[in-house]
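Thread amino acids onto this structure.
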């Protein structure tokens, strides 16, 4: 089952403030995007399978199945193993706010790209837990990564590694998918183990799992994370967003709220990635890109040669046709650049303009 889900999540040929009632605080206005443009190999990308995208000022870093790509001045530049990249399959990218260095998670190790050169970290030359890096995030001087063999923490000042697995953290097994940081905490999405929270102040862990223990359904609504098989975490504005293969959760530090495709505007319960931008979460699913601010939803889908925006609020659904669309409904990554949104899909990279 793990191998099947892993393949589906990445498309690989190999692997609150929320209470029981809606909050009264004003939410960010829901942005709408349109005028979509799709980039493929015809435009200079080395492959159409896009695993991740990360904006960096005027630059955009793109992880593909055939290398790391830099989009700058409307041109694509590809880096591969011939340039020092650890592996051509690039699954995750982050940029350090302290140094501007780029950290890259690949299928064969983690790279630091600094001063125009790649430095590779793997199991043989460092304390990295595993060479398959699903997620990497920079948190001040620290770099955290989620790997196939546990979570890793690298102190760039002291050049020291720490590895967290089921032996020293509340995980069921050492398989982690995602990591995020904020408010002096780090959250790790652990396979079959829900969410692991690392509190930096007291150097302790705690875990959040589905209390009902049911793997097929969410037996008791809003009792915790909706499922223990978590795929991504994102934190912003005091809210933790959690993606699973069976729905989405959000947590305000006191209360959990769950969302599913049958009772909300979520495009699909099968979620590959989630990214919060202010109060709005953008959810990458196998059936489109959904966005949600706690009150209303907008989902972007492909419809023939064009697209479709699906709106959901207060139990009511409406749609609007769009002459342009995201490249593919199997969405895997998302990031933001001013008024633009970038979306990584299983067949092409998309850029949308904010239209409202």
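Threaded sequence (356 positions):
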């Amino acid at each position: 089952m793990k191998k099947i889900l892993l393949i589906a999540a990445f498309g690989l040929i190999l692997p609150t403030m929320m209470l029981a009632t809606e909050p009264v605080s004003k939410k960010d206005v829901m942005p709408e995007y349109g005028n979509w443009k799709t980039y493929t190999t015809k435009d200079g990308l080395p492959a159409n399978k896009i695993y991740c995208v990360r904006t960096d000022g005027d630059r955009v870093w793109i992880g593909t199945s055939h290398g790391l790509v830099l989009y700058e001045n409307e041109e694509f530049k590809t880096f591969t193993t011939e340039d020092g990249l650890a592996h051509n399959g690039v699954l995750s990218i982050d940029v350090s706010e302290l140094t501007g260095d780029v950290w890259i998670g690949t299928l064969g190790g983690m790279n630091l790209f600094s001063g125009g050169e790649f430095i590779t970290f793997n199991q043989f030359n460092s304390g990295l837990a595993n060479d398959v890096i699903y997620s990497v995030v920079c948190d001040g001087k620290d770099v955290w990564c989620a790997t196939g063999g546990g979570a890793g923490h690298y102190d760039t000042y002291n050049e020291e590694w720490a590895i967290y697995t089921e032996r020293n953290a509340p995980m069921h097994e050492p398989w982690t998918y995602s990591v995020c940081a904020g408010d002096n905490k780090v959250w790790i999405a652990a396979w079959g183990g829900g969410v692991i929270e690392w509190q930096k102040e007291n150097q302790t862990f705690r875990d959040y799992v589905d209390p009902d223990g049911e793997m097929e359904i969410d037996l008791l609504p809003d009792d915790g994370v909706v499922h223990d098989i978590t795929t991504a975490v994102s934190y912003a504005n005091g809210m933790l967003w959690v993606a699973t293969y069976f729905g989405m959760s959000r947590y305000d530090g006191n209360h959990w709220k769950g969302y599913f495709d049958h009772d909300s505007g979520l495009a699909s319960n099968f979620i590959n990635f989630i990214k919060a931008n202010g109060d709005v979460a953008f959810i990458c699913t196998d059936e489109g890109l959904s966005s949600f601010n706690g009150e209303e939803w907008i989902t972007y889908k492909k419809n023939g040669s064009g697209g479709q925006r699906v709106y959901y609020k207060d139990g009511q659904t409406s749609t609007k046709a769009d002459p342009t669309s995201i490249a593919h409904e199997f969405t895997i990554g998302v990031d933001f650049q001013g008024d633009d949104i970038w979306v990584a899909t299983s067949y092409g990279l998309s850029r949308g303009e904010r239209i409202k």
